[in-house]
Write a structure and sequence with these properties.
- The chain is mainly α.
- The protein has a domain of 44 residues.
- Helix 1 packs across helix 2.
Length: 69
């Protein structure tokens, strides 16, 4: 079973990407920036899965006239 909690990692990352993400997210540290970015990736997946479930449930109606094609 994988270890849970905080672990030390040695990563090779592009500094410009870290700086850009840090500015966008308004974070103070690089660690905080990476943590928040990873949380956003997980959140994006949850949102897309929810949208997909709703679309498949027929509760979402198209706003386009499909008969006009």
């Amino acid at each position: 079973m994988p270890k849970r909690g905080v672990v030390r990692k040695n990563l090779r990352l592009t500094q410009a990407k870290i700086d850009r993400a840090k500015k966008i997210l308004g974070t103070r540290t690089e660690t905080e920036t990476i943590e928040q970015a990873l949380d956003l990736v997980a959140f994006k997946k949850e949102v897309l899965e929810g949208i997909s479930r709703q679309a498949g449930s027929k509760s979402v109606r198209s706003i386009y006239n499909e008969d006009a094609a």
